[in-house]
């Protein structure tokens, strides 16, 4: 199959899976009672994002990609606690296949536990015939969503969990923005357009930007041929993630649990200037710490020594590690500042519209959605470009 046909097939597979996923989130499960959403409930917005609004209507895909998101993180925690799982991770590809099988089973178990919990909370007996059928249907829906994510990952574009999460989030947002438009009119359209454009541009610039540290490899004579000596570079960039903004928002939302404490009132108002300032500082701090922990310059310097590479003008070994760490920390500081600015833009925009009390954690939600959208678009562009290059060089590979 040529590259053009492969590209078309991947697009059709991704779109087809998204349509099937949204159909499953609209198809009601048997023997369940449909309830109207509780608009005033503070957790409704978060639950709608994670499940596509399925916890109130209980369709076949009631939990969306939530079990697929929780299972890998729970498995990573179990790997740290259980030596047998840690040994499997150290076995390489064979152990990875076993861990993948465990992750799939854990996802289905989470779907089963969620189905039993939701139906029990609604007062339905899960041990009778109708309750058992409903539990089986919701559990099978979780297993089918897991399979759909794997189909996108293997045969479509991007990561399947992220693609379907973005699809269900985009399905939940329009009604909320429609309510915002009904309150504020065209002002909401202008502010949201500026917020969207600003976040998209800054996210793309930070994601595509990199600092190229020049590397030179020593020449080696193997037989009659000379290897090495060609210059190259190490690309240092800031790893983007939504977790700093989400963690900062969750930390600032803790005072909601103590409504009687008056001096914490400024933390409960998402439009308060002091709360926005603290939110900005926390996002920058968490983003810097996360990026610094995930990158090890000593390991990079050791790999250069092993392969015979060096930074021109810098001695190999510890001196190279210190130089790379110095350059990398400057990049991380700038990237963390950009993350804080990006997280601040939707918070300020919604504060101007006075919409924060109406839409809980709306700023973080808008940020996560836009960063997801940009990330998925960049990944798709890279895959398309890779297939185009394959098609260009295909005649030479025959």
Question: What does it look like?
Answer:
- This protein is mainly α and 398 residues long.
- The chain is built from 15 helices and five strands.
- It has helices at residues 3-24, 44-51, 54-57, 66-81, 83-90, 93-121, 129-155, 160-184, 186-208, 243-252, 265-268, 273-294, 297-307, 318-352, 362-393, and strands at 211-217, 220-222, 225-227, 231-236, 309-310.
- It has a three-stranded antiparallel beta sheet. A two-stranded antiparallel ribbon has the order 2-3.
- Helix 4 crosses helix 6 (93-121) and helix 6 (93-121) packs antiparallel against helix 7 (129-155).
- The chain is globular and about 75 Å long.
- The model has no long low-confidence stretch (mean pLDDT 79).
Distance between the termini: 13 Å
Structural class from helices and strands?
mainly alpha
Give the overall average pLDDT.
Answer: 79
* Helix fraction by DSSP (H/I, runs of at least 4): 55-70%
From the alpha carbons, calculate the radius of gyration and give it in angstroms. Answer: 25 Å
Strand order of the largest sheet: 4-1-5
Total number of helices = 15
The parts where pLDDT drops under 50 for at least 5 residues are none
Question: Could you give a short account of the major beta sheet?
Answer: 3 strands, antiparallel
Quick rundown:
The protein has 398 residues and is mostly helical. Helix content is 69%, strand content 5%. The chain starts with a helix and ends in a 5-residue tail after the last helix.
């Amino acid at each position: 199959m040529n590259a053009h046909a492969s590209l078309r097939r991947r697009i059709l597979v991704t779109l087809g899976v998204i349509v099937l996923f949204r159909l499953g989130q609209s198809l009601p499960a048997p023997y369940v009672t449909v309830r109207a959403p509780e608009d005033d409930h503070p957790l409704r917005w978060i639950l709608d994002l994670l499940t596509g609004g399925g916890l109130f209507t209980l369709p076949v895909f009631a939990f969306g990609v939530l079990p697929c998101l929780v299972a890998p993180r729970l498995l990573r925690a179990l790997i740290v606690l259980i030596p047998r799982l840690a040994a499997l991770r150290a076995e390489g590809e064979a152990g990875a296949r076993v861990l993948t099988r465990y992750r799939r089973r854990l996802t289905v178990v989470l779907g089963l536990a969620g189905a039993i919990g939701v139906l029990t909370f609604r007062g339905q007996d899960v041990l009778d015939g109708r309750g058992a059928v409903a539990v089986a249907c919701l559990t099978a829906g979780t297993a089918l969503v897991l399979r759909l994510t794997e189909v996108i990952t293997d045969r479509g574009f991007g990561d399947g969990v992220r693609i379907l999460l973005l699809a269900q989030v985009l399905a939940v947002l329009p009604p909320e923005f429609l309510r915002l438009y009904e309150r504020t009119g065209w002002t909401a359209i202008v502010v949201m357009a500026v917020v969207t454009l600003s976040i998209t541009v800054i996210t793309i610039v930070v994601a595509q930007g990199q600092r190229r540290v020049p590397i030179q490899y020593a020449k080696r004579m193997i037989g009659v041929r000379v290897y090495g000596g060609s210059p190259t570079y190490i690309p240092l960039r800031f790893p983007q993630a939504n977790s700093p903004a989400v963690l900062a928002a969750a930390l600032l939302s803790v005072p909601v649990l103590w409504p009687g404490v008056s001096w914490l009132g400024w933390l409960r108002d998402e439009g308060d200037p002091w709360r926005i300032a603290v939110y900005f500082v926390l996002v920058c701090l968490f983003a810097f710490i996360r990026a610094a922990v995930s990158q090890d310059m000593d390991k990079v310097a050791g790999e250069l020594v092993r392969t015979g590479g060096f930074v021109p003008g810098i001695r190999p070994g510890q001196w190279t590690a210190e130089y790379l760490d110095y350059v990398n920390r400057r990049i991380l500081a700038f990237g963390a500042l950009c993350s804080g600015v990006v997280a601040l833009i939707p918070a300020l925009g919604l504060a101007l519209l006075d919409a924060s009390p109406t839409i809980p954690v709306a700023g973080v939600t808008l940020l996560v959605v836009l960063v997801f959208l940009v990330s998925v678009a960049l990944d798709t562009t890279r895959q398309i470009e890779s297939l185009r290059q394959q098609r260009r060089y295909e005649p030479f590979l025959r």
